[in-house]
Amino acid sequence: MANNCGRVDVSEPASISSGIAERYATAVFDIAKEADALVGLETNIDDLADALEISADLRDLLVSPMIGREDQQNAITAVADKIGLSDTVRNVLALMAQKRRLFVVPYMLTQLRGMIADAKGEVTAEVVSAKALTKKQTSALCDTLKAQIGKDVKIKAAIDENLIGGLVVKVGSKMIDTSIRAKLNSLQNAMKEVG
Asked: Does domain 14-117 have CATH number 1.10.520.20?
């Protein structure tokens, strides 16, 4: 029998969190689909994700071991009520607080987005550009990606001025980097090899 002392599998916590999140996401998705409420669920996901993005206190609530189960449950249900989340999402968040599983909420939101996109027959493309894309550019990019992938494409745009120009497009596990920064880095590496 091999001795694994000193070895740490760093992928385990992430995979455990992902597995827990997938079970909750599947339950929420199935309930919403059965009730023909996927559009409302998608809105709830966006609202909760926005709240998590702007509120450090809410992010702390999800992961703090110093907050007791009951306080965590009361706080998350108050947040759910304030945001206007559906009873299904509110109840799942309360259950997650009881089980000390709120730390997987970001994973759950990602899982739910994927499930909804699959149900709608679309994929999400993460697009990073040096400056904001115009509606015409976004539409042209959607059309090009749809022709390549064969599914409707939803663009999730972000701006990174360090790219200088061009785009970085990620769809699933594929990434296309046409940024000037990437081209300059490639040229710099090529010059190092020559010299």
From this structure: yes
Give the strand order in the sheet containing 122-129. Answer: 152-159, 122-129, 167-171, 174-177
Alpha carbons 102 and 106: distance in angstroms, whole number: 9
The ranges of the chain annotated as CATH 3.40.30 are 123-194
Residue type, 129: S
Domain(s) of CATH 1.10.520.20: residues in the chain = 14-117
* Cα–chain center distance at 157: 13
d(CA 71, CA 61): 10
DSSP H stretches of helix in 64-154: 69-83, 87-98, 105-120, 135-149
pTM exceeds 0.90, yes or no: no
Do the Cβ atoms of 117 and 124 come closer than 8 Å?
A: yes
The amino acid occupying position 140 is A
* pLDDT given at position 167: 86
Residue of 120, 121, 132 whose CA lies nearest to 157 = 132
Contacts of 11 (CB under 8 A, 6+ apart): none
Domain 123-194 class, CATH top level: alpha beta
Q: What's the confidence (pLDDT) of residue 9?
A: 44
